[in-house]
Specification:
With about 1050 residues, the chain is α+β, with helices and mostly antiparallel strands. About 55% of the residues lie in helices and about 20% in strands.
């Protein structure tokens, strides 16, 4: 072959090419970023709209529905989900993955502009933006100290946040446990009434008397002056002395009807680190940033940042997600290293030669390092999928080198000179090696281009596998022949140990030749045994559990706490403290960071706890044992619901991280509540389903203000004036800005009724408003106030109102079982007119298995096509591919014995297996064909080819199995996630190697008999037609 011949003749060329590939790989490795999983751009677009004071029902019908109606007509829309709450609406449009996110945003913006005609005129302009489901915090920082929380919050917001935002790769920084500074103007309703004033009079005074407008420019002959009108209030005293208006020539000042306070916005968030009050800062990296590098930079600069802060406070890392990412990627790298060492050890065991071992082992670093260069060129990162691909291939990339070296060594043993042996041996085996390598590479074409979310995640895996095996082929055909021609020698004087092993191998080879002869004499018995083994493997498959991804011990998890809807911040905090106490009593817990009022909505009845466990070697219980025990303990905390979840391993959408998300859709919200409650009650009876909850909230206490339009009209006031007065006095309203010259910052100025006068619903009726004639009337004259309950949030999915049920699995129940149970419940309990669907991981589970099965079928077809072209035969590929069904017994058996499941990870292992197991068959069939071309009869060719290829078959099989052994053991960080892939590959290779050595030769002769029989039949037919024509 040209490559091997050239490398033997011109060793400098071979060396330079190898060094160039090595340099290319090292350079690429240094520039590779680190991620847990490949960065996937999900085309999500959000439309957020606010209308102050509007009830959820109003937002749903008047805002959400018109927007959904328009965006639903855009091409490529997959799902539309929305949430309508008090004063806000958020519509999330999920597009099919083929849609470009930027063009999708433009399409949504155009449709929302059309919808504006149907929306209320007083809404705020809708905000349209991309939504990144991967935008989750990588670090949580805590600021603790002896200063008041408000003071620390200002330092965090105004000093620390700008420094953090200047770090490359840092995106959004959210603050928890902090209420922003505000100038609070407290109004006394009785004193307002005594002075015949309203809150609107106060608001108007700020609007006209707390302003600073530019005055233009004064120009003289040689100078120019900027004119500033300094009309802004500068301190609290000036605020209190603000003249609202004059009555009978006397000024009425703000201090006459209330007072001003330099305070904060209403406190709706609390944060603690290990039960100590703190200010929390969560850091979200920019889209596409190297998250590990961002975390490293932030942590390295914390020391410098602490020096810029007051000595009474300190900032530290309270929760670090990057630690698990670094540990997991590092441990996969260790698996690669250990697999390489084991593979090299196998080489020495079989070859019993240091020279031979070193020559073949060089293929491992050369191939893998070259792969890093290709990864960088493709824009990949060192992530779970690319490193897992390399760890799976570490025993495979040495195969081509083994095959080439073993064949060259055999020629040298037969008496050929090293140069001639290197040329002839490499050329003789080049076809088989190329066929096997391109079969592996071709298998991963459908993997790399699978549809759906799963295809995006496994694209980098497929390309990395293909790159590594092609690199190994190039190394095997360029470097190995050259090294063999210069350094490989046949050991004439063998040690006693070498002689012992050689005798052992020769004995094994002799026994194999006898067993193979028996099999060829009893072919149909062998076929029957192989068929029974395959049927048995299918029986095992039926009993394997199914899930999206295996659960792993990440030494971290999170807890959602929910107090009853309408609970106060104080009530929720009391429950949170009790849960914190239970958690910190656990010996496995390292740190906890807790916060109430998370997110833009600041719901004070909901909180999140982030739990960091000690390293796995420092605790007796595994993560999920800790979680299960904690579930039992938190049941003793009354008055709240607690849900314990893993951090979502793969972000696939959904409203929460729970693996089971079940949507019920229909027209009536109350009927949805009844259906979901019935289904949840049934779910709670099922073992293995835990943390069952729903997002339907219809019991929020509310005060309803009914406006009598006739009376309001008679009084000369309209609905907007009434609503504005209620908003100002009860909720508070921003009316102006205060400029702090020292800080160069502006703060909101908010007016509100004093607390004592807004304690009950009846207080609303005592608010006064001004009529067009200048008089005052009480709201009691034009409104009716009632207490009631209503929905806190109205959710929709795909244009219908929806209720989502969340649940997790435990006690050995897999996600696939839970989905099947939910399907059965849906058939029994969801009435006509209502529908259901899955969301999040459950939806991805169903979609992914569909694409994986298609990819598996495509891989088998591609292998056949590649082999058919390379062997120029339609029948020989069938013989070779018999290794595929034989491998399933080992793969499924290994998963069953180890308690593993069929997941997207183990399914990729099965697809990988389809490429690997045909390698042994190729070696057998190719050499058999070579011997027959030299004139040997079929059975003699089989009986000679199989024993000759026994050594390379065993070597490649064992190196592949030991190469994936560290992955299969799954001892390292995140090992449970990838173990299924290694176990399926290990078991499949083991079974297929044993069976291939006997079944493939038997099948080869049977298929050859069929070919010869068909040929004789056509010959007879042709002769018969010839005789008839002559007659």
């Amino acid at each position: 072959m040209f490559l091997s011949d050239t490398s033997v003749k011109r060793p400098v060329v071979a060396t330079i090419i190898t060094l160039a590939l090595f340099f290319f790989g090292v350079l690429g490795y240094q520039r590779l970023g680190i991620d847990l999983f490949p960065q996937v751009d999900f085309p999500f677009v959000t439309v957020t709209t606010t209308l102050f004071g509007a009830a959820p029902e109003v937002m749903d019908t008047d805002v959400t529905d018109p927007i959904e109606e328009q965006v639903n007509t855009i091409e490529g829309v997959k799902h539309i989900t929305s949430a309508s709450g008090y004063g806000f609406s958020q519509v999330v449009v999920e597009f099919e993955l083929y849609r470009n996110i930027d063009s999708a945003v433009q399409d949504v913006r155009a449709k929302v502009d059309l919808a504006r005609r149907k929306l209320p005129t007083d809404i705020d302009p809708p905000i349209i933006d991309k939504f990144d489901i991967n935008a989750i915090p990588i670090l949580w920082l805590s600021m603790k100290g002896n200063l008041p929380l408000q003071r620390m919050g200002m330092i965090a917001d105004e000093v620390l946040r700008p420094q953090l935002e200047s770090i490359q790769g840092v995106g959004t920084i959210n603050l928890d446990g902090y209420a922003k500074r505000e100038i609070r103007v407290w109004l006394d309703g009785k004193r307002l009434e005594a002075h015949r004033l309203t809150s609107n009079d106060v608001a108007r005074a700020f609007l006209t008397k707390n302003v600073e407008l530019p005055g233009g420019i004064i120009e003289s002959i040689d100078r120019e002056f900027t004119v500033r009108n300094l009309g802004e209030l500068r301190n609290i005293e000036e605020f209190n002395n603000l003249i609202i208006l004059y009555q009978n020539g006397a000024p009425i000042r703000l201090k006459d009807v209330g007072w001003t306070e330099d305070g904060t916005e209403p406190v709706r968030s609390i944060a603690r680190f290990n039960r100590v009050p703190a200010i929390g800062l969560s850091i979200i990296p920019r889209s596409g940033a190297n998250v590990v590098e961002v975390a490293r930079t932030v942590k390295s600069k914390l020391v410098e940042m602490n020096k810029t802060l007051p000595p009474e406070v300190e900032v530290s890392v309270s929760f670090d997600s990057s630690f698990f990412i670094e540990e997991a990627i590092s441990d996969v790298g260790y698996d690669v290293f250990l697999g390489g060492i084991l593979a090299a050890g196998v080489m020495f065991f079989f070859l019993l030669s240091v020279r031979s071992t070193v020559i073949t082992a060089l293929a491992i670093p050369a191939s893998l390092i070259t792969s890093f260069g290709i990864m960088h060129f493709m824009g990949f990162t060192r992530n779970y999928m690319t490193m897992l691909a390399l760890s799976m291939m570490v025993g495979v990339v040495i195969d081509d080198a083994i095959i080439v070296l073993e064949n060259i060594y055999r020629h040298m043993e037969e008496g050929q000179e090293p140069m001639a042996a290197a040329k002839e041996g490499a050329s003789e085996i080049a076809f088989a090696a190329t066929a096997a390598t391109f079969s592996i590479a071709a298998v991963f074409i459908p993997v790399a281009f699978m549809g759906g979310i799963i295809g995006r995640f496994f694209y980098q895996f497929g390309v990395t596998v293909a790159a590594s095996v092609i690199a190994s082929l190039v190394i095997a055909l360029i470097l190995i022949p050259m090294l063999c021609s210069r350094f490989l020698k046949v050991e004439k004087k063998r040690s006693k140990l070498t002689h012992f092993f050689e005798q052992g191998y020769e004995g094994l080879e002799g026994q194999y030749r006898k067993a193979l002869g028996f099999c060829l004499s009893h072919r149909w018995v062998i076929v029957a045994i192989a068929t029974l083994i395959f049927i048995g493997s299918m029986a095992i498959l039926v009993n394997l559990k199914r899930e999206f991804v295996p659960k792993s011990d990440e030494s971290r998890f999170l807890i959602h706490l929910e107090a009853p809807t309408g609970s106060s911040l104080h009530y929720t905090d009391d429950k949170m403290k009790k849960v914190e106490g239970l958690i910190l009593n656990l010996p496995e817990v390292k740190n906890i960071f807790s916060t109430i009022g998370v997110g833009a909505r600041k719901e004070v009845n909901k909180g999140i706890l982030l739990i960091a466990l000690k390293d796995r070697g420092e605790r007796k219980r595994a993560q999920h044992e800790v979680m299960a025990g904690l579930r039992e303990e938190v049941r003793g905390v009354p008055g709240c619901k607690v849900y314990i979840e893993d951090f979502e391993p793969v972000a696939v959408g959904g409203r929460r991280g729970a693996p089971l998300q079940f949507d019920i859709k229909g027209p009536n919200v109350k009927e949805l509540e009844a259906i979901s409650n019935q289904i949840m009650a049934e779910m709670m009876k099922r073992p293995g389903l835990v943390d069952v909850s729903s997002d339907l909230e219809l019991t929020k206490p509310e005060v309803r203000v009914f406006i009598d339009r006739n009376k309001a009209s008679d009084a000369g006031v309209d609905v907007r004036e009434i609503s504005s007065a209620v908003r100002q006095m009860i909720g508070g309203q921003e009316v102006s800005k205060f400029k702090d010259a020292e800080r160069a910052k502006r703060y909101d100025v908010r007016v509100r009724l004093i607390k004592d006068q807004r304690m009950s619903p009846e207080d609303i009726a005592q608010i006064s408003i001004r009529t067009p004639r200048g008089g005052l009337i009480k709201l009691a004259q034009v409104v009716r106030v009632e207490e009631g309950i209503g929905p806190n949030l109205i959710n929709r999915k795909d244009r219908q109102r929806s209720a989502t049920i969340y649940a997790d699995t435990a006690g050995g129940k897999a996600l696939g079982e839970a989905i099947d149970e939910m399907e059965n419940l849906a058939k029994k309990m969801i009435p006509s007119g209502y529908s259901h669907s899955f969301f999040g991981q459950a939806e991805a589970f169903k979609e992914s298995f569909h694409y994986l099965i298609i990819a598996l079928i495509q891989a088998i077809v591609i292998i056949y096509m590649v082999l058919a072209m390379q062997f120029n035969s339609f029948l020989h590929p069938l013989t070779i591919m018999l290794a595929l069904p034989l491998s399933t017994a080992g793969a499924f058996g290994a998963l069953y014995l180890t308690g593993d499941t069929i997941s997207i990870i183990s399914m990729i292992g099965l697809i990988t297996l389809t490429a690997l197991v045909v390698k042994n068959s190729i070696l057998l069939v190719d050499y058999t064909n070579t011997l027959r071309e030299k004139g040997m009869d079929r059975n003699s060719a089989v009986l000679q080819a199989a024993p000759v290829r026994l050594r390379p078959i065993l070597m490649t099989a064992v190196t592949t199995m030991l190469g994936v052994l560290p992955v299969a053991l799954g001892f390292s960080a995140g090992g449970e996630l990838r173990a299924g892939m290694g176990r399926a590959t290990f078991g499949g290779m083991f079974a297929s190697t044993l069976l291939t050595l006997f079944v493939v030769p038997v099948a080869y002769t049977l298929i050859d008999d069929i070919r010869l029989g068909a040929k004789r039949l056509f010959v007879k037919k042709d002769r018969g037609e010839g005789i008839s024509s002559q007659a």
